[in-house]
Amino acid sequence: MQFIDLGAQRERIRDRLKAAIDRVVDEGRYILGPQVTEFENKLAAYVGTKHVVACANGTDALLLPLFAAGIGPGDAVF
Description:
Radius of gyration: 17 Å
Strand content: under 5%
C-alpha cells in the first residue's frame, strides 16, 4: 500500500514545476537569485512570519539557529 502517491502529486504540478526550473536555469543564479527571494517572501507570508531563510539542506537549516544562538562544538544541547 502506497502511503503517498508522489507521482500523482508531481503530475498535477508538472508544467509549473518545469517552468520554474527553466526560470532558475535560464537566470543562472542558484544562490540568492530572484526566485529564492520570491520563495522566501511567499513562505514567510504563508506561515505568518517576517523572515525566512532558504537553506541548501536540512543540516544547514539545523545548524543556522544553533550558530545564531552561540552554540558551537563542545556545547551540550538538551
